[in-house]
Amino acid sequence: MAKISVSRLAKMKQEQEKITCITAYDASFAAIFDQAGIQVLLVGDSLGMVLQGHDSTLPVTVEDIAYHTASVASTTEKSLIIADLPFMSYSTPEQTYNNAATLMRSGANMVKLEGGTWLSSSIAGLIERGIPVCGHLGLTPQSVNVFGGYKVQGREKGEADKLIHDALALQEAGIQLLVLECVPVGLAKRVTEALDIPVIGIGAGTETDGQILVMHDAFGISAGFCPKFSKNFLVETGDIRRAVELYKEQVENKIFPGAEHSFF
Ligand code: KIV
Ligand code: NA
Known about the structure:
Elements: H1 6-14, E1 19-23, H2 27-35, E2 40-43, H3 47-50, H4 62-75, E3 80-84, H5 93-105, E4 110-112, H6 120-128, E5 133-138, H7 144-147, H8 157-173, E6 177-181, H9 185-194, E7 199-202, E8 210-213, H10 215-218, H11 234-237, H12 240-252
Parallel strand pairs: 1-2, 1-8, 2-3, 3-4, 4-5, 5-6, 6-7, 7-8
Helix pairs in contact: 2-4, 4-5, 5-6, 6-8, 8-9
Family: Belongs to the PanB family.
Protein name: 3-methyl-2-oxobutanoate hydroxymethyltransferase
Binding site for Mg(2+): 45, 84, 114
């Protein structure tokens, strides 16, 4: 089978087929996820926490992401690979283009950045230069110090309306995928219905077009705690390949995330 493309993901949204995504940081796990038919692998800056042991994603560098992207790309045949632009690596359009180029040369098919309307011109510039972009709204972990902790976002009406406004502006700027993290189920549904592009949720309920998990959370091996919205798929399966299949199956059948993994 050919590489999953952004147009394939758009078609999956139209046909109401759920998109399953997971983070990956190395060649061996990437091969397992790729062979299981996971559509998207994210080389997330979550690696700062689950691989490097930091208490936030802020210390992660472009070089870190490039290194792990190359590892993931070495064994990935079908899955679309997204690489995170880390904290303060996309402050100006010029800096954004250079850092995104490094990640694309390392094997990424798309880059992801966190934030709303202020990113519009950088996003449009990336796309004009041939780099597909994924947005990220809701709980954006690079802003943990502004939020004052890892908290559910968009619970107040003003906040929710601003998030919808940001999502539409990002789509207008040209993003082809949006990650929505830790928002109430109702807001996730509103965003998913408002956008033509696929919306991938994490801690955002079942109404989004797809799901993403940090792989360490999906296997219950995170060094810190396992967030409420995650599930250890190894418990029922006892085998990594079967755990990945179960995750995909439960996303496709809207069994995961359940109410116990969602915010209201
Ligand atoms: O870095 C990461 O793993 C992410 C996901 C949680 C969406 O951005
Ligand atoms: Na990230």
